[in-house]
Amino acid sequence: MDINSIKNQIDLDLENINSSKELEELRIKYLGRKGLIAELFDQMRSAKEEERPALGKALNSLKIEVSQKLDEKSKNLSQSTPSQAESIDITCDGILPKLGKQHILNQTIQEICGIFKTIGFEVVNGPEIETEFNNFTGLNIALEHPSRDTFDTFYLGKSPSQRGQKLLLRSHTSPVQIRVMKSRKPPLAVVVPGKVYRPDATDASHSFMFHQVEGFMVDETIRFSDLKGTLELFAKSVFGEDIKMRFRPHYFPFTEPSAEVDISCIICKGEGCSVCGRKGWLEVLGAGMIHPNVFKNVGYPAGRYTGFAFGMGIERIAMLKYGIEDIRLFFENDLRFLSQF
Amino acid sequence: MKVSYNWLKDFVEINEPVESLRQKLTMAGVEVTDCQKKSGDSVLEIEITSNRPDWLSHIGVAREIAAITKSKIKNQKLNIKNKDQKNNLLVKITIEDKKDCPLYTGMIIDNISINKPDPIIAERLAILGLRPISPIVDITNYILLETGQPMHAFDLDKITARSPSHQLAKSHVEISIRRAKQEEKIITIDNVERTLSSDILVIADSDGPIAIAGVMGGKDTEVDNSTKRVLLESAYFDPITVRRSRQKLGITTESSYRFERSVHMPTVLKAQERAGNLIKTISPGANFSKIYSNGSISKRGKNISLKLDINSLNQTLGIDLAGNEVVSILKRLQFGIGRTSGGKRLKVNIPDFRSDINLPEDIFEEVARIYGYDNILVSLPKICMQGQKKPAADIDEVTDLINKTLCACGFFEVITYSLMSRDKVTICPDESIIPIANPLSKEQEILRPSLLPGLLEAAAYNFNHSQDDVKIFEMGGIFEHLNNKTKEGLNLGILSCGEKICDWHRQAILKEKNAVNFFDLKGVVESILSELGIEYEKVSFREGDLPIYAPGETANIFINEKEIGSLGKVNSQLLNKWDIRKQNLFASLIDLEALLEFVDLKKNFKKFSSFPAAERDLSFIIKENISVKEIKEAINKEGIKFLENISLFDEYKGKNIPKGFRSLSFSFKFSGENHTLKEEEINNSLAKIKTTLMDKFSVSMREN
Question: Given an 8 Å threshold on Cβ–Cβ distance, is B462 in contact with A334?
Fold first, then answer.
């Protein structure tokens, strides 16, 4: 082949090239050690002496031209869509890293405790096996009064007892109030998350084991209005700035005055729906000013301190917040449930 | 409790539509949970807290409405006329213990003849869902709903018929209020024979019990439509005694509900008058005895007074009410106001129906309730925290860190029940198990002694729902009975089962499944310990023998010489208990409290070399019984220069390896702190390792 036919041929060849592999083969065909251009250089030796410089010059410029054309093609190739032979189907599923998750109830507890931590509360834990004193008597709940009926309680069998007191599984987190106040002096600002137990038949809205977060603050000038402000801050952080709140008088043996706290239904925005029982309100907290008898029972001097306390059920909060309709889902531990949060 | 809107209007002027009344009651603590229109009336369903027995009647709710809506009370004294025709019948009442029954009254009505029941009574009872029984019983039910005082009517002729002694003396009846004798029996009006015990208070004649005091009457002496003579009972029974009776018998009635919460003593007598009055209207010919009574209105029924400091009230509530505003609220609630000193301290006389008011704080609530909780402005607490010193390693920080580490390793946190059935326990000696005294079901028999059963339960649940990759963990309490004490400990349990690599791409390449194994979980445990700042050198995995694991594939985990947990392949017998048919489940159980003392969350930056590291591999054949741990320790003891890390990358037994031996391959990483290592330096170090291995373990090197 002479210079001109190579010039023509390279253009034709390049047109048929679709992959870098083919291009590489073409490069070898033209520029390789035994390629077409090398062949022409070899033939140059048999050319006449006076023609050689011009021929060499022409061959060199041919070599540069071919090389440039190959480079250009290579550039175009990498810019255009790769051919089927060497590409991947990028629509195949991405390989999801296997992420583990914290249980939604513990996430909720952390969120709630986190809110109270930002306003100076500390988190304290307490045991699940408790004495009758800490669970009832210390909290001004008479053992044989109807107010105890809401606190059906699991007692431990085989009568293990401490100092003659019957042992039980705590039916609320409030015993930790007694524990903390007995061992420390105000000011106190404490939140207590944890498991509690009540012998309830299990159904979509009842479980014999559930979680509560308890909070209390004690000092010399704590007011009912502070309780309202604190809980408003909390509820708006959890359920959103636009919810409404209301405090209704209620009765708890360990607080006086006592209140039940409702938020406007987050499903129907107060219009009335099946979740709120057409009331427009959802009860989410029990609260009140700590009863003077509780202070007396922990040995605080009479009249010295005031304080507020509140408690909430975590399952209920999570159910409302995430639209979960059956409490049993929390304890079945179905991975299809756990992985959603 | 259900109340009728129209009936309430007998006792208070209501100028509000039902809906707005409902709202106001709810916001004052009388929660109206439902409101139904019914034959020209409205029935309000209200929830009454256990401290307010005075609300358990129409008169009580009407009184509250008057206070809330500032409206006028009507007819609260009831329309009680003197009954003229008197009979001479005598009731002899004996009370065994005045503590059980401080006040008992009885009245005999004879010559009863009823044409038709009072239409208003019938209608109101019907609206409130009470079926008519007999005109006399309907009247006692009516009085209960009206005044809150439960009454009971005995058929006097049936009492006389029971006992020969009564038949002899028809002009009087003797009853006693006493504790039941052991094994004494009574058939109650619901037709159930009940065996009594000495916890239970009864009304008895000489022949035996005729009623369970405050709970339910006896069938024997029940009045009916043909009753001519009745003995009408109105009494105050001790709340705790009635509570014990109804708990023991498992029956709650409208009566027991009220006695348990304490009835209003002065109403005991008024109810008798009221009953006589109502009976008279339907049986004009009836004759009445006088009201016989035993006992008296005790201190509880009389007025008490409390001192109220307005400043203290304002301070506690966070409001600023003037003395006269407080007085006005209290007067609406029928509280009496005594002398005041400068308007800042009040003497407040508590009405006798308010047994719940015993402290100034109780009055604070009353004022706040009527003022309106919603009218109290919000504030934030002014509190100066002393700050708590944080313990060296807080258990919350530890659980938090473990949680993060395990989630990053792909494990899901689960929460399982702390109660379980006894037959799912396997490893615990029976005497260490803590049983529940009053479980509702088999699943609540005992407190869990380990986290493993709950984890297996969760795993089985997921397997049954076609989810085979189960990597879960739980941190929670486990319980045991030890040295006559209960012990509650915080544990970590991890369970792992399924594929390690299970994405479509690698499966396609590897053409094989890659199940998790012992070392996967061991690595997870090692990661946790490392994240908790526990030095690798302190940790050892020693051959374990817990029966929950398969023999030979289990280890006990030690930090220094303290055992903190275990790890292994779950024993297949255990898996059978949960009907798990899979084989490769691995679990680890760790005592977090035992671990706590070794946790060190302080972190110090360790410099790393900026010069490139070099890696060299060695493969050698070594006796099978020499552990990897021993090999690493032997090399580490030599203090080999530049050696930074040793890691195992292959283990091989079988073809070409003599029996009792195995081939191990390690990768050694060398680096220099301040220079790039020369080939010679690396070779020297590697040679030293080879010598150590050959001298100590007589290994034979394999040439690659």
Answer: yes
